[in-house]
Amino acid sequence: MFYWFLKTIVIGPIVRLVFRPWVEGEEHIPEEGAAIFASNHLSFSDSIFLPLVVSRRVTFLAKSDYFTGRGIKGRLTAAFFKGVGQLPVDRSGGKASNAALSSGLKVLRRGELLGIYPEGTRSPDGRLYRGRTGVARMALEGKVTVIPVAMIGTDKAQPTGKVIPRIMRVGVRVGKPLDFSRYEGMEDDRFVLRSITDEIMYELMLLSGQEYVDMYATSMKDRLVSAARAKARELQDAAKPGSAAPELEEALDAAEGKARPSRDATDDRADDGDDENRADGDADGDAPVVAAS
């Protein structure tokens, strides 16, 4: 009930009016029966725009962190995610993966539409990353078709970290249903699961026009975080007294030169000695410290 209230009365009309989302391939959306929507994942708002252009209810699997926040904000966040049709799942792996599979299969067995992001997380840079095989296993065990869906422009409307989205048109491109019934009974074959997943990701690449990267998005995020930390350490080291980068030292010397009294030009020999002593003092830690940003 709350889902339809948000979709048809509260969020839906406002989003349609402001963002005017467009949709292509609407004829590929089944009017009844279970199916999996496998979508690329560019933005937090993907889970809002996709259900908005589909007349039927779409249930997504979302990380459990969204449902366990504390305080008023946490309760409001949990209520919102439940309201827009998302189920909490633990993505830590192992038994948690089986629980996520079970939650998804319950939705499919009710004859409903299930939304999945095979990449497992939002793209860190707008490219399409390697899919995880859970979508393939769910398709085989649920005996349903997979409908590839490409979100267009949502990363520009609401980049990662941006709370208030930018007002612009976004799109949803729906592809032809993919039938994997030829692999029935092979849901425990990891090579089959990888083959199915790669086929889904290939269709998403064609639909979205994204560059494909054959690595997991989470691995790329780890690399970016490591690179950012290394850069921060470099900046901190450069800001320490006596260890500044050459460009920084030149800038400091130039600043000191501008502040030096005009007598520098009248007594060269005395200033040579002063400069040498000043340089020694800087090397011992008297140079100004520049804070890293």
UniProtKB/TrEMBL annotation:
Residue ranges, compositional bias (Basic and acidic residues): 255-268
Record GO biological process: phosphatidic acid biosynthetic process
SUPFAM superfamilies: Glycerol-3-phosphate (1)-acyltransferase (SSF69593)
Annotated region described as Disordered, given as residue ranges: 236-293
Organism in which the protein naturally occurs: Terrabacter aerolatus
Protein name, per record: 1-acyl-sn-glycerol-3-phosphate acyltransferase
Taxonomy, superkingdom: Bacteria
Stretch forming the signal peptide: none
One Gene Ontology term of the molecular function aspect: 1-acylglycerol-3-phosphate O-acyltransferase activity
Domain Phospholipid/glycerol acyltransferase: 35-154
GO cellular component, one term: plasma membrane
Record's keyword terms, sorted: Acyltransferase, Transferase
